[in-house]
């Protein structure tokens, strides 16, 4: 019951966000955008919002006019918005983006994924060099579930999956790094699937409360370590490299913009990104303030 209610609340929120709540995609906004300004858009989860403010911060530090349009929704919304010029750049994740664009993509290494992206990108879009930071999809169980079913790897799930419920974003039903790939690569078929959120509080709460037994979370989520949950090893490389990389409209991919965003690449490690996530998700700090403080600490802004 708790899961059904939570899912209903999420659905209502998502519907609102896709209508009046998405300011940068509102018809009233068309034509009002300053041609010289850069609009950074983000998906609707906290880490991506943090990244959006990091992008904005390094661009502003170079004297550019920048605004952030956060929480715009899924790729089905924000990638077309990027093509149409409603937004100019967004933080992406290599492997997830590749599999969104090419359902048959099987590349796994960071270099191979990056190379495979260029020929399948929609016209007018460009992916810039990726950062050291990586946030991969992971499949997580509680220690109690791991002990009960002797789970250490995704291979181990096969024998027990008929008794287990997977929870994660709705896209898990149709994407390769989800039900399709788990069945194809590991022979896993779950008792049920619960559509929740993208590595957020609904999924974490359902796992902790026992409404689901396996959760699709993000590798940078400090809750996993704090709760003593077990990340199941992906021994057959179902999940590709998912380094953070800017996806940009080519009209704004100037040398100055590209160089400014590249300043993040060495400093933004997976460990640093995880710390930033913790400040927002655990300490309830504002994403823009967290990003601003980190950029100053790293010497990227004054």
From TrEMBL:
<feature type="signal peptide">
    <location>
        <begin position="1"/>
        <end position="19"/>
    </location>
</feature>
<dbReference type="InterPro" id="IPR007210">
    <property type="entry name" value="ABC_Gly_betaine_transp_sub-bd"/>
</dbReference>
<dbReference type="Pfam" id="PF04069">
    <property type="entry name" value="OpuAC"/>
</dbReference>
<protein>
    <submittedName>
        <fullName>ABC transporter substrate-binding protein</fullName>
    </submittedName>
</protein>
<feature type="domain" description="ABC-type glycine betaine transport system substrate-binding">
    <location>
        <begin position="37"/>
        <end position="297"/>
    </location>
</feature>
<dbReference type="GO" id="GO:0043190">
    <property type="term" value="C:ATP-binding cassette (ABC) transporter complex"/>
</dbReference>
<keyword id="KW-0732">Signal</keyword>
<dbReference type="GO" id="GO:0022857">
    <property type="term" value="F:transmembrane transporter activity"/>
</dbReference>
């Amino acid at each position: 019951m708790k899961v059904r209610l939570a899912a209903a609340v999420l659905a209502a929120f998502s519907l609102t966000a896709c209508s009046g709540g998405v300011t940068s995609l509102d018809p009233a906004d068309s034509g009002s955008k300053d041609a010289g300004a850069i609009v950074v858009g983000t998906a609707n989860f906290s880490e991506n919002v943090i990244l959006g403010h990091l992008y904005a911060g390094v661009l502003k530090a170079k004297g550019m006019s920048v605004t952030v349009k956060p929480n715009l929704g899924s790729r089905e919304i924000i990638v077309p918005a990027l093509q149409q010029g409603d937004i100019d750049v967004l933080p992406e994740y290599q492997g997830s983006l590749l599999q969104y664009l090419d359902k048959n993509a099987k590349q796994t290494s960071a270099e191979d994924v990056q190379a495979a992206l260029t020929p399948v990108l929609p016209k007018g879009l460009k992916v810039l060099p990726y950062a050291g930071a990586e946030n991969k999809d992971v499949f997580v169980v509680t220690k109690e579930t791991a002990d009960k079913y002797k789970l250490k790897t995704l291979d181990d799930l096969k024998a027990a999956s008929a008794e287990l419920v997977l929870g994660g974003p709705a896209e898990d039903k149709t994407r390769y790094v989800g039900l399709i790939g788990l069945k194809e690569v590991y022979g896993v078929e779950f008792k049920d699937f619960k559509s929740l959120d993208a590595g957020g509080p609904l999924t974490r709460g359902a796992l902790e409360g026992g409404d689901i037994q396996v959760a699709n979370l993000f590798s940078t989520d400090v809750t996993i370590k704090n709760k003593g949950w077990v990340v199941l090893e992906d021994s057959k490389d179902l999940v590709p490299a998912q380094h953070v990389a800017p996806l940009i409209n080519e009209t704004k991919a100037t040398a100055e913009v590209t160089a400014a965003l590249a300043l993040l690449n060495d400093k933004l490690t997976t460990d640093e990104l995880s710390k930033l996530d913790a400040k927002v998700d655990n300490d309830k700090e504002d994403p823009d303030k967290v990003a601003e403080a980190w950029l100053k600490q790293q010497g990227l802004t004054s």
